[in-house]
Write a structure and sequence with these properties.
This protein is mostly helical. Helix content is 73%, strand content 0%. The longest helix has 32 residues.
Length: 183
C-alpha cells in the first residue's frame, strides 16, 4: 500500500482511498485488531504521500529548477494557476485534500519555491486528517453493518466522496477560468 501512495503522489492518480478500504478489509487475514491495522494503514498512507511528494519535489528541483531546464512556459502556467486559487502558497495543500485543485504537489513545491518543511508538514497534517476520517468511516460502517455488506457500503461511500471531490474541483476550476467582466 505504501508504494500505491508513493505512485499516487508522484506519478499517476491511483484512487488511494479505494485502496485504503480494500486493504482495511485484510485485517483479519493478519490477525490484527481493526484499530492496530487502521493505525498501520494510516502510517503507510501518510509516509507514502510524504515520500511521493518529496521524490517529485527532489526530481523537479534538482533536474529542472536548479539546472535552469524548467520550461518557462510550464512555470508561468503553474504561477498563473496558483493566482486563480483562493490560497497562493503552501496552504493550498490542505485544501487540496478536500478539493483536488493542484496536481503533482511536489512539482509545484519545487517550481514555485515553496518552503519544503512547511509544505511537508501540510502534506502530513492533511493526509493524517483525511485518512483518519476515512478509516473512522470504515470502522463505523463495519460496526453498523454486516461485515460482507460493510465493505460494499464503504466502497460506495468512498466513490461518492471521490465523485463529490472531483465535482468540487471541476466547479472550482470552471469558476476560476471565467473571464472578469468590465464594470
Amino acid at each position: 500500500m505504501y508504494l500505491i501512495f508513493v505512485v499516487d503522489a508522484s506519478v499517476i492518480f491511483t484512487l488511494p482511498e479505494v485502496f485504503v478500504v480494500l486493504f482495511f478489509s485484510f485485517h483479519d487475514d493478519y490477525g490484527l485488531s481493526p484499530l492496530v491495522w487502521g493505525v498501520a494503514l494510516l502510517a503507510m498512507a501518510v509516509a507514502g504521500e510524504a515520500t511521493g511528494n518529496t521524490l517529485l519535489y527532489w526530481f523537479v528541483r534538482r533536474l529542472l529548477v536548479r539546472t535552469g531546464k524548467m520550461p518557462r512556459r510550464i512555470e508561468v502556467l503553474m504561477r498563473r494557476w496558483m493566482n486563480f486559487l483562493i490560497l497562493h502558497d503552501e496552504r493550498i495543500i490542505l485544501l487540496n485534500r478536500v478539493i483536488p485543485v493542484v496536481p503533482f504537489v511536489g512539482a509545484f513545491m519545487a517550481a514555485l519555491k515553496w518552503n519544503y518543511p512547511r509544505s511537508l508538514a501540510y502534506i502530513v497534517i492533511g493526509g493524517s486528517a483525511k485518512y483518519s476520517a476515512l478509516l473512522l468511516l470504515i470502522g463505523a460502517v463495519g460496526v453498523a453493518y454486516d461485515p460482507e455488506i460493510a465493505g460494499w457500503v464503504t466502497l460506495i461511500l468512498v466513490f461518492g466522496i471521490v465523485a463529490l471531490s472531483a465535482a468540487g474541483s471541476y466547479l472550482y476550476r470552471k469558476r476560476a477560468n471565467i473571464p472578469k467582466q468590465d464594470v
